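Sharing in case it's useful to others searching the archive later.

Someone asked me privately for the predicted structure of Alpha/beta fold hydrolase, so I'm posting the question and my answer publicly. Question first, with the sequence:
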Amino acid sequence: MPSTTAALSHGAATVAYDRSGSGPGLVLVHGTGATKEQWQPLTGAVADRFTVVAPDLSGSGATTDHGGPLTVADLADEVLAAADDAGLATFHLAGHSLGAVVAAHLAGTHPGRVRSLALHAAWVRTDSRMAAEFRYWLALLRSDARHGTDLFVRMLPLMAFGPRYWERTDDAAYEALVGALAGVIAPGAGRQTEVDLTVDLGPLLGRITAPTLVLASAHDRIIDAGQQRALLSGIADSRYAEIDAGHGAPGEDPEGFAAKLAAFLDERVAAEREPAGLR
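And my answer, the predicted structure tokens:
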């Protein structure tokens, strides 16, 4: 597994990432408590035509760092370091949840590097309700660490998945999911949740020049419609799409989620190939 070094606000990080496929660059940024493995369904769908780079953010997977506080800018620097190390001068960029926030930050601070941008379940600014939600997560994580319980992973499906998941599940399936989540939630989920509390993309949205897909989940219990409207009004070249799932669409409907993003990416590549006069 390749890795590279990124300078962060409180020290350095060794950023691990996966690189696969061939073609135009595509960088994928995972969400809170996840790892680069979150992107396997999409990677499998597009690696025949994109060079896919998926880093582990600090607190996740094989990436190591100073262990202190993190910022959105720190995580964006890690993503850019992975893209640089993989030899991607420009790239398409997609992110989920916190990863979408990080992707938007990168696109706003380095607009010349980003060819297109796909944001799933992103938000512009953490409001008071979201802050209460994130502090609840932190309380669960701390309680689990103290008492050896699994409260956080039991909460996750309730928060992340929409009606279609619950219509087809039962108690045994839910318990199996809780067991699986317990084995994959990154140990740095708390540090990443602290970053969630600090999000404010407002000053950067107007600097994003890449064609942007704002992909919302129809049953998102964390990110409300107002946040999506703010993204659309703040990013000049943006469009809206929706998936019939909850906030955790990459896990709830991995094939449908991958198909939405792959269609947007393929469209952007085709548009780049058109003669300028035909666009």
